[in-house]
Write a structure and sequence with these properties.
The protein is of the alpha+beta class. It has one domain. β2 and β3 form a beta hairpin. The relative contact order is 0.29.
Amino acid sequence: MHAARHSSAAQSPFELRFPSLSGTGRALSFPCDSSGSVHMDSLSERARNNYLLARALMGRDYGWPSVLASCQVQT
């Protein structure tokens, strides 16, 4: 499964991940705080649209989201 990660200006140690319910689909993940709150103002327009889409399609195209520790690679 591939996950599309949408970064923000401030890197977060957590991500809210919406798993794809399609076998060939893609999960979507977004930076969030430890309680799963996404700061939408920090998302790009494309990421914000994908976040709203994933929320609208929970149970149909995307599963219920979970908060995970972000595994970002620092360069």
